[in-house]
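Below is a filled-in request sheet from our internal design queue. Each sheet records the structural input a requester submitted and the sequence that came back. We keep these sheets so that new team members can see what a complete request looks like end to end.

REQUESTER: design group, bay 2
PRIORITY: normal
MODE: inverse folding
CHAIN LENGTH: 190
BACKBONE (tokenized):
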């Protein structure tokens, strides 16, 4: 962490809203992407990021730069907020007996055609497996960063990635989603 970032953190803790905005702005776009990939809904993803920003704003004094980068700390909070929203959404959809999520033009433009096919398969994974796949392949986080973000050991992250790839390969083959064989091979080798 740079001296400039530490200065901005200190200023933000002291109540400087502009410093907080400057500090968090570079991380918001990726955070929204992560939340969207978990929730499949733009407005819910924005809600998750807003909730996370509010939590960080209120607890920035607890941030420990020796434990994690601001990016991984923020990602962890965003993921927790998104998972909380997903749980609430599942609860209400069961009550309303309406679990459908209509496709919107925005959803179709976020990913190209082949990525969308792969992501359809990713969506079928359990939340634990889907989360590690999204963080590793869609957010380009290392195994170590995923471990820090989710509070897991590197061994657990590797195990979940392995299980996720295995299950994803099975889903892709079963669904024959038009995904080329070489793509399935790549997923199973990584």
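RETURNED SEQUENCE:
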């Amino acid at each position: 962490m740079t001296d400039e970032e530490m200065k901005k953190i200190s200023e933000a803790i002291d109540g400087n809203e502009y410093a907080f905005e400057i500090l968090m702005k570079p991380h918001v776009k990726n955070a929204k992407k992560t939340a969207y990939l978990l929730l499949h809904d733009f407005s819910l993803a924005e809600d998750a990021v807003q909730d996370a920003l509010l939590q960080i704003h209120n607890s920035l004094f607890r941030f420990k730069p020796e434990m994690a980068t601001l990016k991984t700390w923020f990602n962890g909070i965003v993921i927790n907020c998104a998972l909380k929203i997903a749980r609430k959404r599942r609860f209400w959809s069961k009550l309303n007996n309406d679990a459908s999520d209509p496709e919107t033009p925005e959803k179709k433009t976020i990913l190209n055609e082949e990525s969308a096919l792969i992501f359809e398969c990713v969506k079928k994974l359990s939340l634990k497996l889907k989360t590690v796949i999204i963080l590793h392949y869609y957010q380009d986080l290392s195994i170590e960063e995923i471990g820090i973000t989710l509070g897991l050991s590197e061994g657990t992250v590797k195990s979940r990635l392995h299980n996720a790839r295995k299950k994803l390969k099975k889903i892709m083959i079963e669904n024959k989603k038009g995904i080329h064989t070489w793509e399935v091979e790549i997923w199973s080798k990584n």
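SHEET NOTES:
- Residues 1 and 65 are 7 Å apart (CA to CA).
- Residues 70-96 form the longest helix (27 residues).
FILED BY: M.R.
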